[in-house]
Amino acid sequence: MKLDRGSYLILAIMQKCGAADFIQALTINEIAEKERISKTNTIYKKVKHLQKAGYIKEGVKVGRAKSYYITREGVMLLPEKENNYE
Asked: What is the pLDDT confidence band of residue 85, given thresholds at 50, 70 and 90?
């Protein structure tokens, strides 16, 4: 499955924020605050696509909002950071 840049960005945000388990999951609005480019509706569609692919799972509810966290498969999609700036 091919992912677009926005999907990789959502996965990276989740990893950076520690949203890697059921309890520490992020809501769509929390992801949108960190992403600051796309509208919440666009982020919602991307999250649902990633969830269907198995890269994101649903976490605990935060008030009335659903939350989501990155799975091991999602983490494996993210590239290793290289610090070779020579």
From this structure: very low
